[in-house]
# Entry
Amino acid sequence: MRNERGGSYSLEHFRHLALGEVSSTNTECLTRARQGEASGLWITAERQTAGRGRRGRAWTSETGNLYASLLLIDPSPPELLSSLPLAVSLAVHGTLRRVLPATAEAVEIKWPNDVLIGRKKSCGILLEAEILPDGRRAVVCGIGINIRHRPETAPYGVTSLQEQGATSSAGEVFTHLFDEMIQILNIWDHGHGVAAVTRLWRSAACGIGTLIRVNLPARSLDGVFVGIDDDGLLILETDNRLHHIAAGDVFLLETE
# Structure
């Protein structure tokens, strides 16, 4: 398992900067990347004033939740980068399983990287990439976990770790996330371990064999969620036809 220096990822390859209030931990990571920051920087914040989710959606960022972003520089060849969101979701999945009590509802992943507790959204994951002036690719893995707070209004079910009986603080949850991410990045192996990642992802997947709706930019498709292929693409069956989908919003029709 290789990193940029030719060995496996370990503790010394990562650094942690804890901040108070920021606009967004992803923004902070990208700013520092433009200034020459090396790969492996974690930034956490107590609160975000301009947190964001996928497709530019606002992300509620009150004190008491975890807001963390990891900066990776050239983490894989460009053609292998698309599997990184699956790997990040596995790190979050492992983190939640560590801190939740045995009485909590099931922890699952909804494609591609929504980590659910009892089929309710518990966190947000946003990956952003940018080509730096020197030609390197900066990739930021942003993770927000609902610990004490959750959105009051959402188009889907939401929950928090506290509601599920967890007592860990944001700092304690981050300690587990830090460790889980190292393990998963080593399995992912700069994209060369995608087969291992997809196997692990399938074991944690939510809704395989059930009806789902996939909202695409120009249309929506309803069908049976067959699973994911070896490249991490969603496989949807409609009228005996299989669609391999690279990006879209998934809704579980039986629960949402």
